[in-house]
Amino acid sequence: MSHQVINTQNNSNQSNQILPPKPVLGAPDASGEMADLLALMARLRADCPWDQKQTNHSLIPYAIEEAYELGEAVQTDDDEDIKGELGDVLLQVIFHCQLYAEQGRFDIEDVITTLQEKLIRRHSHVFEAERLKDDAAVKARWDEIKAEENQAREARGKPRRRLDACRAGSALMQAQDVQKQASKLGFDWDDVSGALDKLDEEISELKQELQTLPSNLKNAKETEIRELEKELGDCMFALVNVTRKLGLDAEAAMLTCVHKFKSRFGFIESQLAMAGKQFEDSDLMEMDTLWEAAKQHERAQ
Question: Do 98 and 172 share a domain, yes or no?
């Protein structure tokens, strides 16, 4: 929403005064109260077409993205950015709670109660007579309590399998961790050559799958797209395995690549700007030439 800017005259010196945006008709005030936030979420679900379409599954990518953006904001140490990103993470929590409440399963009070019970249960050294001398002892006790919770989970008919303990995180992080856990159970190649052979095999299968699809994937059937996703996933999973066998971290490798790509693309943008141009004024040949120049620039640094 844009701000209104008006000119005022003060002692013959003209200045700009920025007025706050006009409130939307019927919009509630930002009170800072949790009850008002929950009411606002319910209102959005009732009146916003986009919010009405969402499901708990459709929101998953947003929750993951917001968590990463919060991490980046904390790194910047900018209060306004941090407040904004914390709010976005909180939005994901209340959005999910609103959807589950609509399904008659549980609401945010149930979530808060469950969290409180967990924190109290896992901090017996704080709330009971038990005293632990250092953080290592706290960690050990924490693991014991989690094991007890897992046993209770199994008693409810939710058996915990060996790979269930793998950490949550990005797809790359999860892929590397499940491979690591499987390796501990003997499901692994002796060296990286086996992982490389598997990567070649998966890439070959991807090429074969692409040959069966129309050149324009917009004309492909939904089932064909799903199969293509599976083959792409197999290739990525195999490449993560190669990374793991080399003793490297797949997430770190990908982040390095993303940073490098952004840096080189920034170089292209700056070079175009120096020539008085934008991306829309350029073509692939020119941008590819500047990309190579960006690589040379990296080597010279």
Answer: no
